[in-house]
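User: Can you model how alpha-L-arabinofuranose sits in this protein?
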Amino acid sequence: MIKVTVNAEQKKGKINKNIYGHFSEHLGRCIYGGIWVGKDSPIPNTDGMRNDVIEALKDMKIPVLRWPGGCFADEYHWMDGIGPIEKRPTMINTHWGGITENNHFGTHEFMRFCELIDAEPYINGNLGSGTVQEMQQWVEYMTFDGISPMANLRKENGQEQPWKLTYFGIGNENWGCGGNMEPEYYADEYRRYATYVRNFGENTVYKIACGPNGDNYNWTDVLMKKVANHMNALTLHHYTLPTGEWKVKGSATVFEENEWFSTMQKTLYMDEMITKHTAIMDKYDKDKKVALIVDEWGTWYDVEPGTNPGFLFQQNTLRDALVAGINLNIFNNHCDRVQMANIAQLVNVLQSVIFTEGDKMLLTPTYHIFKMFNVHQDAELLDTRVINDDYIVGDDKLPQVNISSSIDADGKIHISICNLDPIKPAELDCDLIGDIRTKVTGRIVTANEMNAMNTFDNPKTVTESQFVGAKLVKNNLTVTLPAKSVVVLEIA
Ligand code: AHR
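Assistant: Here's the modeled complex, given as C-alpha cells:
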C-alpha cells in the first residue's frame, strides 16, 4: 500500500500555467502541413492556419508557444519571413533534412497563430549566426509603437499595432548547434546581445538565456555567476532517450519492458537535474528571481522507418503518456524555480500532441495528458508526502508512483498520479489535511498494451476516460490505479 498525505493547508507556490507550454520549430512537418497549409488550401483554415489544429490546441489550453527553433533559430534571419509571401526568399533548411524553406510562415503568421490559439508567443532570437543589429531590429519591429524604420516596415506589412511580446530567447543551445561556444564566451555574447533587446513603450521583454545541456552543471554555474542580473530566465534542455545513446535511441513503438523501465528511469532523472541546477542557481539568486525554463523536453526515439531522418517524426504511445505525466508532475513540484516548460514539439515531430496527414488530424496519448493536467495551470502547489512502493525489474527499482497536487481558485484539489509499473496496479491510501471534502471524480489515460497508440485508422485507442477507482470517506481517499496509467483526481 502506498501512503500519501496531501496537505491543503500547506500551499507551496503558484504553478505557472506556462509549465504547460509547447515548442514549434521549422522542422519536418511541424510548421508546414502541421500548422500552416496556406490560405488557398482546401483544408479548412483561418488565414492559412489549420482550423482542426487551432481548435484542438485551444481545447487543450495551450498557454505559450516557442518558435522558430531550436537549432533553426540560430540560422533564422527574420527579415526573410516578412512582406508579401511571393517575394520571400526560398532557402535551405540546413539543420533539418536540407529541404526547401519558402518562408511562408514568418513573424506575422506566428503571431496570428498565437492569437488564434490564445497562447502567448515565445520567440527565440538568433545569436549564433545573426547580428546584434538584427536581433535589436526584430524586437523593434514587433513591439515599437511609434515612428521608426522597423515600426514603419511592420505597418507596411499590414500590422498597424505592435504586438505584445514578453518571452524572448537570446540564442538556443549555444553550447552546440547555436555556435559551439564555451559558457564564458556565451555569457559575454549574451550580455552584449541582451543589452540591445529593448523595452519599447509598455512592452517589457522577459530575457531568456541559453542554459545547460542536461546535467552540464558548470554551464549553469558560469552563466549565473557572470550574467544572472541580466536575465529573467535560464533554459534547460533534456530529452528522454530509452537507450541513453544518440546513435540508436530505441524504437517509439517496438520495445519490451526493459526499455519501458529505462525510459521511466531516464525521465525521472529530470527531477535530479532540476534539483541540482536549482541548488546552483540558489547560490547566486536566493530569492529565485531568475527562472529555470525547461524549453525542450520529451522523448526522442529513432525516426519511424521509411520517413525522412531529418524530419524526426516519431509515433507516440502509452509510454509517452507516462513520460509526459511524470515530467509535468516534476515541473509542478519544482514550481518555485521552474516557471515555464515547452515540450518538443507541437505537431508531427518528436513527442507531439497532434499528428496530421493531409486533411486528417489525430490527438496522441500525450495530448490527453496535457488536457487532463491543465487543471493545475495557475493553481497552488500543495505539500504532498509519499511513502512509495517499488516498481522492480531485475535488480533495478523505481518508485512505483509519481504524484503532484494542487488547489485551484475555486478550492478544488487536483491530484495527478502516474503508475509506472506496467504490470501491477497501485494501491494508494491518501489522507487529505484541510476542510472536509465530499466528492471525488477522476479521469484516466491507460491501455492494454505498453505500446498502444493512435493511428489514422484507429485514432482513439489511447484516450481519456472517466476514472471510478477512487473512494473518499471523511478525507481519506483510497485509490486503485491500473497498471501503466495516468490519473487526475478532482476532490471538491
Ligand atoms: O527539438 C529538436 C532539436 O533538439 C532542437 O532544434 C534543438 O534545440 C535540440 O537539439
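A couple of observations from the model: Residues 25, 69-71, 172-173, 296, 344-345, 350 surround alpha-L-arabinofuranose (CB under 6 Å). The first strand starts at residue 2 and ends at 14.
User: Helpful, thanks.
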